[in-house]
Amino acid sequence: MAISKVTLACVVLAAVLGVSMAGHGSSYIHVVHDDSHGHGYAAPEPAYHHEEYHEPSPYSYKYGVHDAHTGDVKSASESSHGGVVKGEYSLVQPDGVTRTVHYTADKHNGFNAHVTLSGHAHHAHHY
């Protein structure tokens, strides 16, 4: 059975578009097969499915660790409402300085962060 150039081109196009459209909702390609006798027939098309965009549901969370034995001290909190995410996290760096990051993110302004350092650095002395 010979495959026509048009059919082969449609199959290649379907493979390329199938990869590039992954994760972007439903898609389909309308392929018309040619049986080399001038009689074409159309492949069935799936029904079009349209998904409406909804803002993410509001949420908030907090967590923290304070392990005096290992010196692991950190905390984080984040909340989201109306497509705007706000949060902060802090951690004690190995030199003893506390790094705190306050951030916001939304689809118009992107991700924006403000970093502050507090405390005095100390370095271990090796003997």
Automatic annotation (TrEMBL):
Gene Ontology CC annotations of this record: extracellular matrix; extracellular space
The entry's keywords = Cuticle, Signal
Q: Give the Gene Ontology MF terms in alphabetical order.
A: structural constituent of cuticle
Which PROSITE patterns does the entry mention? CHIT_BIND_RR_1, CHIT_BIND_RR_2
Pfam families documented for this protein: Chitin_bind_4
For this UniProt entry, which residues form the secretion signal?
1-22
Domain of life of the organism encoding this protein:
Eukaryota
UniProt-listed InterPro entries: CHIT_BIND_RR_consensus (IPR031311), Insect_cuticle (IPR000618), Insect_Cuticle_Struc_Prot (IPR051217)
**Protein name from the UniProt record:** Cuticle protein 19-like
Q: What is the lineage of its organism?
A: Eukaryota, Metazoa, Ecdysozoa, Arthropoda, Hexapoda
Q: Which gene encodes it?
A: LOC117644528
